[in-house]
Amino acid sequence: MIYLKTLLNVIDNSGAQVVECIKVLRHGPRNFAKVGDQITVVVKQARPLNAEITGQSANNRVKRKDICRAVVVRTKAPFRRPDGSVVRFDDNACVLINQNGDPLGTRISSVIAKELRDLEYKKVVALSPKSH
What we know:
Layout: E1 7-10, E2 16-25, E3 38-46, H1 56-59, E4 67-74, E5 79-80, E6 86-87, E7 93-97, H2 122-127
Parallel strand pairs: 1-7
Antiparallel strand pairs: 1-2, 2-3, 3-4, 4-7, 5-6
């Protein structure tokens, strides 16, 4: 479960490494995010921008203190699937997205939860190497 001020790893190549949750974009009485929920984040740690990178890839890079949207793809908190199995990951991770729900990066470096297939994040699932 992702609450306010939770730190998450970013698993795409958008330029961010660590982000902090500042808002859970969810309707209802619960104020936490789980796998598949959108959150608003601020970039706490970013990769340095190379001088030789130009064009569209440089425009899509995020910098420290940027405010972005993200979708949660892994959580440390265990959650139950409809078949009865319980899934728990080693870290909290997210993928940065734009207002339309398209990912900012062009690659995803590690696994994501299988529950994203059923939601509207088809492009995120297509970029991931594997889903658990």
